[in-house]
Amino acid sequence: MPSAALAAKPTKYDARRDAVVDAAAAVFAEFGYHGAGTGLIAGRVGIRQGSLYYYFASKEEALSEVCLRGVGDFLTGLEDIAQSTMPANEKLHAAILNHLRPVAERPDYVRTFITQRQHLPDASRRSVGRQVRQYEKALTELVRQGIAQSAFRSDLDCELMALAIIGECNAVFTWYGKRAKALSIAQIADAMATRFLKGIAA
Amino acid sequence: MPSAALAAKPTKYDARRDAVVDAAAAVFAEFGYHGAGTGLIAGRVGIRQGSLYYYFASKEEALSEVCLRGVGDFLTGLEDIAQSTMPANEKLHAAILNHLRPVAERPDYVRTFITQRQHLPDASRRSVGRQVRQYEKALTELVRQGIAQSAFRSDLDCELMALAIIGECNAVFTWYGKRAKALSIAQIADAMATRFLKGIAA
Amino acid sequence: MPSAALAAKPTKYDARRDAVVDAAAAVFAEFGYHGAGTGLIAGRVGIRQGSLYYYFASKEEALSEVCLRGVGDFLTGLEDIAQSTMPANEKLHAAILNHLRPVAERPDYVRTFITQRQHLPDASRRSVGRQVRQYEKALTELVRQGIAQSAFRSDLDCELMALAIIGECNAVFTWYGKRAKALSIAQIADAMATRFLKGIAA
Amino acid sequence: MPSAALAAKPTKYDARRDAVVDAAAAVFAEFGYHGAGTGLIAGRVGIRQGSLYYYFASKEEALSEVCLRGVGDFLTGLEDIAQSTMPANEKLHAAILNHLRPVAERPDYVRTFITQRQHLPDASRRSVGRQVRQYEKALTELVRQGIAQSAFRSDLDCELMALAIIGECNAVFTWYGKRAKALSIAQIADAMATRFLKGIAA
DNA sequence: CATGAATGAGGGTTCATTCAT
DNA sequence: GATGAATGAACCCTCATTCAT
What local confidence, expressed as pLDDT, does residue B181 receive? Predict the structure, then answer.
């Protein structure tokens, strides 16, 4: 019964490991990669500095893992939307929501990914960079489709639009939870989508 | 008379000192405050590590100075615009241009200010933070005025709008010079203003 | 009856334990005592780091055991030869063979003993050092006997001779198996003995 | 006046640097590379641990430098001898003296080179290894010449001879200064050469 | 002003060792 | 016996900073 073997796959100390990654994400997000001490991370999990290396080979590897989880399913989510049959307007709305939702679910991961990925070791940085560019390209394409379907103005600079959306969404990570009253992610996404759509309607 | 205030500022051995501040801004922007070594800064000016301390009392002070120049006249520029007699539409356009112009003139300073000000010593950080909040408030107010004058839709969340504008402008610092072909700052500002205005028109 | 002595030695769970000691000897020989990690030793036996401590109280104790087996029966072998009735020439040949034979049988143990015994804890080091000096003394005495029997030149410095033989034999451990074609230990011993004897013949 | 420029070549703080290298050599020789703490080295020069890195980029680099000085002019000395017009007998004597002389002049360097070069970083280790093999080859060749000139027995294994000489000489580093009364290097070299020559005379 | 030299605190990391399971 | 997990001391190294020259 292979399914049994799969089901038996021991998640083991993944619980503790996840706690460590969580702590790393939180500390990286708060102090930046180089400003974060491993002792601080360890302290948040209630273990000693050296014990971290039972879970990670290095601080860099911890950053890599955090960033990987941070970049998460941004891309797949967007591609699902792009391939769907929704009209362009709804696609854009969905794309914004797709980008904003992680803000509430794993803010430290995404914040770290956005602001600290430059400190990744070369290999990971390039790998992550490729994903980012692919994401930008997919969003650019989504805008282009909207134009082709005459849903959006034809004089738009598609790439500029994509960067604008990404930039505005990323900025939300900066202040969400601290400012702008107590807006929900859905509300913010609605407002943003509405304004963007009005701004670029054909 | 603002020129008097400027002239009163003691300029002394500014030439060399400015070179040092420039180097610090560049290195902070590239590697982050904690990722930047004083040796690297010194190297870019062609002096040795220890010699830096003829220009700065500490690395923190260097960051403070860079951030101060980074925040620069964002606020005064915006207040000038707010107090002018332009119609709301033009004010918004002017505000965006005011925010974007430094991207071409002193990108390292602004980039450092945006991404590294969290590492300032407590006093400077709070002082700078106050300026930021004041800037946000001024921009929020500018939007509110537009609504009062029936130039913008009345269902806008003013603060959200201000944060959106700021976020989108700041994002430009991330990619300007590397992506989006060879757009000029003015072109970007035009496109952004046009879209924003269409999106929020009454 | 030496076989009785051997049989009396408590053998217990020797099989696995010997495997562990072997691994320790190999790793110590290759990386040196301080360059060898317990994890590496454990890995070679297929167990985990912590499990080593069912076989040893400490890494130092492992080194002690390896060195003890390394020094092995050098001394008793040499004393047997010294007390035999062979002529001096043959005694020297036998002594050289006695010293070289372990090179093929347990090279890692001897190599470790020769190069790493300085890192033994004080007690063991002194104990082992005493054996070494006794060995040197026995060999020195063997040369002295040869002179007394007019088999060797009378102007020899006996201690120097002993050290020379030991040094040359120990050096074999350095290159045996890697260089000097595919000479057998017996061939090397023959060549060495022949030359030494010609060099010191009366 | 180029000679003036050369003479002016500032030896600078080479004096202090040499003291540091000396200390490193001594500590490496006594405790082995991995058994030697940088703090111990620093302590012997009277500076703090971190200050070492003003003179070295890393502990490995210190080992490299020590080994380089350790291997010193063994090779060039031997090549000079080989190319000279001395008879084979004298050449061998000179070669032995050439190998032994450093024992009195820089024992820590040579001891470290002999016993610790395995811990060099890959690049240096291979480079040094090449020198060693060249040295062995040169000595082997010197023996072969002696045979060709009918000065040595024709049934000698030349490589084995070379390794024997090297091994015996290197062994001197082990005990010189501690054992064998108060023999001078010259005396030891004489005794060794005499015996070797008798042992291999045609 | 600038430097060579040094510092000392702290950094990330390794590793022999322990212990409940 | 063996393991996963944790420890704490020590390690090598970096770096902002100081200071006599």
Answer: 73
Domain assignment present for residue C3? The answer is: no
Task: Identify the burial level of C199 via C-beta atoms within 10 angstroms of its C-beta, where 0-12 means exposed, 13-18 middle and 19 or more buried.
Answer: buried
**Does residue C91 lie within 7 Å of nucleic acid chain E, judged by its CB?**
no
B197 close to B96: Cβ distance less than 8 angstroms: no
Please give the pLDDT value at position B10: 46
| Mean pLDDT over the full length of chain C | 92
Measure B76 CA to nearest chain A CA, in Å.
23
Residues B135 and B176 in one domain: yes
pLDDT at C180: 65
Mean of pLDDT values over A140-155: 96
Is there a domain that residue C98 lies in? yes
Write the CATH number for D123.
Answer: 1.10.357.10
User: Cα dihedral angle (C79, C83, C85, C90), rounded to 10 degrees?
Assistant: 30
Q: Which of C119, C166, C196 sits opposite D35 (nearest CB)?
A: C119
DSSP A161-202: HHHHHHHHHHHHHHHTTTSSTT--HHHHHHHHHHHHHHHHB-
Can you give the CATH number for the domain in which B25 is found? 1.10.10.60
What does the pLDDT read at residue A201?
84
Sign of the CA dihedral with D111 first, then D112, D113, and D116 last: positive
pLDDT at D180: 65
Residue C59, CB, less than 7 Å from strand E?
yes
Residue of C nearest to D115 (CA): C115
Indicate if the pLDDT at residue D137 is higher than 80.
Answer: yes
- In this prediction, residue C103 has a pLDDT band, given cuts at 50, 70 and 90, of confident
Interface contact A148, partner B, CB < 8 A: no
Looking at the fold, whether C93 and C53 belong to one and the same domain comes out as: no
The residue range of the domain holding A21 is 8-58
* CB-nearest partner of C180 from D163, D168, D172: D163
Whether the CB of B121 is less than 7 Å away from nucleic strand F comes out as no
Residues C124 and C188 in one domain: yes
D177–C contact, CB cutoff 8 A: no
Residues A43 and A74 in one domain: no
Q: Establish whether chain B is in contact with chain A, requiring a minimum of 3 CB pairs below 8 angstroms.
A: yes
Instruction: Collapse the DSSP code of D152 into the 3-class scheme (helix H, G, I; strand E, B; otherwise coil) and give the result.
Output: strand
Residue at a domain's end among C65, C85, C101: C65
CB atoms within 10 A of CB C165: 24
Torsion angle in degrees (nearest 10) through CA of B184, B188, B193, B196? 180
How many domains does chain B fold into? 2
Mapping DSSP to helix (H, G, I), strand (E, B) and coil, where does residue B48 land?
A: coil
Is B97 found in the same domain as B194?
A: yes
Residues A55-83 pLDDT 10s? 999 999 999 999 999 998 899 999 999 99
Q: Strand F: which bases are under 7 Å from protein Cβ?
A: 1-19
Q: Which chains touch D (3 or more CB pairs under 8 A)?
A: C
D99: distance to nearest CA of chain C, Å?
Answer: 15
The CB-side HSE value for A57 (13 A sphere, CA atoms) comes to: 3
Which one-letter amino acid corresponds to residue D197? L
Q: How far apart are CA B23 and CA A188, in angstroms?
A: 39
C-chain CB neighbours of D160 within 8 Å are 180, 183, 188, 191
Q: Does A108 share its domain with A180?
A: yes
Residue B79 — pLDDT band, cuts 50, 70, 90? very high
pLDDT at A180: 64
Provide the pLDDT confidence category of residue A93 given band limits of 50, 70 and 90. Answer: very high
**pLDDT range class, residue B133, cuts 50, 70, 90:** very high
A&B contacts, CB < 8 Å: 102
Does a structural domain hold residue A3? no
- Is the domain of C59 the same as that of C73? no
Residue of least CA–C1' distance to F10: D37
> Do D168 and D95 fall into the same domain?
yes
Residue B4 lies in a domain: no
